[in-house]
Each structure stands twice: as structure tokens, then as C-alpha cells.
Amino acid sequence: MNSTAVPRGASEPFRQLRALRRARKLKQEDVARKAGISREAYLRAESGQADPRMSTFLAACEALGLEVVLAPQHLAADVNAFIASRNGGVTAASMAGQAAPSAPATAASPATGSFGSGTGEGH
After folding, report:
1. Which stretches are tagged as biased composition: Low complexity (predicted)?
2. How does pLDDT run across 3-61, given as a tens digit for each residue?
3. Is the pTM for the entire model greater than 0.90?
4. Least C-beta-crowded within 10 Å: which of 47, 68, 81, 104?
5. Helices (H), 1-123
6. CB 9: neighbour CB atoms within 10 A?
7. Per-residue buried b or exposed e for 27-46, using 16+ beta carbons within 10 Å of the residue's own CB
């Protein structure tokens, strides 16, 4: 796998966090330290080797300067458009080289995407 490839098992939100981390030229250690988690825990979450707790995801988002916003699926496209309009058209998805998603269940400002059903505390 080359250095820009996204790990196959990584969840979409952690793919976006990885893209943001790299765009900001931060190391995994930098984000993990700021999030108050071990580098190994962050590495496993980012690479898809672990199913992280929601608290790990939220800590990583905060470390990268992101705010997690929950939006009804039918409003997700409007929320994404609003975020892009206030942020010069930039979203985490666009930084990751993806088109803006049309209807995720959750959004992390400026990142967007669903943390995924069936994940979270205790899994």
C-alpha cells in the first residue's frame, strides 16, 4: 500500500480524519497526543484495525479542530452545502478528494459522514 492509499477497513469518518491529518501535515502521534489517546489506539482506528469507541472518534475530531454535528438524513445535503458555503467550499470530504456526500446520517464540521450503524461504545 502506498503512503496515500486509504486502508481498506477504515470507516468513512476515519478516512476523512486521516485525509485532514495528512493535509495539515500532522503525524498520528500529534493527533493522538492532542486527543489524549495512545498512538496505537489512533493508528488502529485510522487504519480500520479496530472498531473505536465513539469517545475516541470525538476526541480525534476535537484534536483536528472539528465539531461533530448530527443531522437528519433528509437535511444532510443542506447541512453540507451550508458548511461549504461558510468555509470557502471546503469540506473534509473535498480535502479527501471525494465529492460531497448527498445524505449521510451524521456530519462532522467541516467533515461529513456517518460514524456507522452498529459502532460505538462497547463494540
Report:
1. 93-114
2. 444 445 567 888 889 999 999 999 999 999 999 999 999 999 998 888 888 999 999 99
3. no
4. 81
5. 12-23, 28-35, 39-47, 54-63, 76-86, 92-95
6. 12
7. ebebbbeebebeeebbebbb
